[in-house]
Design a protein that fits this description.
With 105 residues, this protein is an alpha+beta fold. It has helices at residues 6-16, 26-29, 66-75, and strands at residues 20-22, 34-38, 41-45, 60-62, 80-83, 90-94, 100-104. The strands form two sheets. Strands 4-7-6-5 form a four-stranded mixed sheet, covered by helices on one side. It has a three-stranded antiparallel sheet with strand order 1-2-3, covered by helices on one side.
């Protein structure tokens, strides 16, 4: 993620996706970025001075209720693309920095 955009990350990962922020170890917190968790899954966003969004490579996050999450995305004005090519309901969304994320139902 770009430097100084932690609040944008919190708004998206906590506010929209419903994850919880994890306190980073103090030595790592000095570097910036944020960590988030949901169940056994953690997403770590580190600051990169030469940041370039991951538009193809992406994490896939299994959602307990994809329909509810897609509704929250709509309410927040966040675009997503639904797809069922794998035979499972899923959608692709981009975080505030342009990184691609797959949401699987």
């Amino acid at each position: 993620m770009p430097a100084g955009r932690e609040d944008d990350a919190r708004a998206f990962f906590c506010g929209v996706l419903g994850m919880t922020e994890v306190v980073k170890p103090s030595e790592l917190a000095k570097r910036g970025g944020c960590w988030f968790a949901s169940g056994q899954v953690q997403v770590h966003l580190g600051v990169d001075p030469d940041f370039r969004a991951a538009r193809k490579a992406h994490p896939g996050l299994r959602c307990a209720n994809l329909a509810d999450l897609l509704e929250r995305l709509r309410e927040a004005g966040i675009d997503y693309e639904q797809d069922s090519a794998t035979g499972m309901p899923r959608a692709f969304v981009h975080d505030p920095f342009g990184n691609r994320i797959e949401l699987v139902g």
